[in-house]
Design brief:
The structure is a single chain. With 415 residues, the chain is an alpha+beta fold. Helices cover 47% and strands 16% of the residues. The protein has 11 helices and 10 strands. It is globular, with a radius of gyration of 21 Å.
Length: 415
């Protein structure tokens, strides 16, 4: 907490036309400023080259984020900073203003790898892993998505079977952030279980009778574990993405998360991650707006600054209004979460709104930069390309629309 709450320079407030900063605490502002300072020092000078090369020094960045207190910052104890949801969200904005891949690294570590151990693990598991993960010395990943089971995790094919006191894991996972650099993977698999013989927790619509989704902590040096880098990405290039394969991976009884039973457990982790995303996506949007504002103020067209034209100002006015509305929604959801009253439906609405708003802002800012908008010298198209992934992962826009539709009508349209 000490690193996060150090003194930091004030941020530009030219987009803050509603004076929203006045509603933030001094701790919130300090955490936001410290995170931006880290990004200015450790990421912004290099991230365009990382993106172009499709490589990222993920472990070095994890250690630096750990030193700053960003990893698992919204969790209590075990070396975690124990900040508010709003503070975590503000940090995510600054991380994603640098690059979505950096925020993804932090989100996966804290919300998808650390949170399930913190929430569902044994005390021995918490003591063994969480302090090192908070420090960035142990990197984790989260294995839920499969090649044929993205938006429908209940139909996963990865299986675990009991063999004496051990478990044997077989299957594969896809699009796993941090997968090629992780020391441990939190992997979700279907396990034969007398407790779930009626199939009520096996998956959606009662599928997987006689099986129950369980979580396992899998050290990545376990024989039979393979992580292959996903190549040829056109989005989130400054991010380590892997396909994980489990070929008769043998795990001891200490690997299973004792309190994670059924699909509800991994879905609760996704809700944690989506809270960071609904803030974070707005960081990419804000960075695009700031770059566009600088550009139109100095670019001369037909003898006048580009920013002096009505069409330019109309675009800026509309984008800033949309950004501000989405930011206010994010703050409301964060504050509601800090009161213990947030629901997954709220988070779905925020994730849907923030990602759609952010990608439209990025695309429109690209038009203001003209041909320069496609150059890697400016971050705008990099943000737009990254947001294509952010729009999809942790629930596609369509999935969140159906979540909201179910809340509104009481009818399930998932199939």
């Amino acid at each position: 907490m000490a690193a996060l709450s150090g003194q930091s320079p004030r941020l530009s407030t030219r987009l803050d036309l509603l004076a929203i900063d006045r509603t933030l605490s001094e701790d919130d502002l300090a955490i936001r400023g410290a995170t931006r300072q880290l990004m200015d020092d450790a990421v912004r000078p290099y991230v365009a080259d990382w993106y172009e090369a499709g490589e990222i020094p993920a472990r070095d960045l994890a250690r630096k984020c750990g030193e700053t207190g960003l990893l698992g910052m919204h969790l209590e104890g075990y070396g975690c900073a124990g900040t508010s949801t709003v503070a975590y969200g503000l940090a995510c904005i600054e991380l994603e203003a640098a690059d979505s891949g950096i925020r993804s690294l932090v989100s996966v570590q804290g919300s998808l790898a650390m949170f399930p151990i913190w929430k569902y693990g044994s005390e021995e598991q918490k003591q063994k892993y969480l302090p090192g993960m908070a420090a960035g010395e142990i990197v984790g990943c989260f294995g839920l998505t499969e090649p044929d089971a993205g938006s429908d995790p209940g139909s996963m094919r990865t299986r675990a079977r009991r063999d004496g006191d051990s478990f044997v894991l077989d299957g594969s996972k896809m699009w796993i952030t941090n997968g090629t650099v992780a020391d441990i993977a939190v992997v979700w698999a279907k396990l034969a279980s007398d407790d779930a013989a009626d199939g009520t927790e096996g998956g959606a619509s009662g599928r997987g009778a006689g099986e129950q989704i369980r979580g396992f902590i899998v050290p990545t040096n376990t024989p039979g574990f393979t992580a292959r880098e996903v190549k040829h990405k056109l989005s989130l290039r400054a991010s380590a993405t892997a396909e994980l394969t489990f070929d008769s991976v043998r795990l001891g009884p200490e690997a299973i998360l004792p309190d994670a039973r059924g699909l509800k457990a991994p879905l609760s982790c996704l809700t944690q991650a989506r809270t960071g995303i609904l803030f974070g996506a707005l960081g990419a949007a804000r960075d695009c707006l700031e770059v566009a504002l600088d550009y139109v103020g100095t670019r001369t067209v037909f003898g006048s600054p580009l920013g002096s034209y009505q069409l330019t100002q109309a675009k800026l006015a509309d984008m800033t209004t949309s950004y501000t509305a989405a930011y206010l929604m994010a703050l409301h959801i964060g504050r509601t979460a800090d009161e213990g009253a947030a629901t997954p439906t709220m988070v779905s609405m925020g994730k849907l709104n923030s990602t759609r708003t952010a990608i439209e802002i990025a695309r429109t800012c690209r038009t203001l930069l003209g041909a320069n908008g496609i150059s890697g010298e400016y971050p705008v198209l990099r943000h737009a390309n990254n947001l294509e992934s952010v729009l999809t992962y942790e629930g596609t826009a369509e999935v969140h629309q159906l979540v909201l539709g179910r809340a509104l009508t009481g009818l399930n349209a998932f199939g």
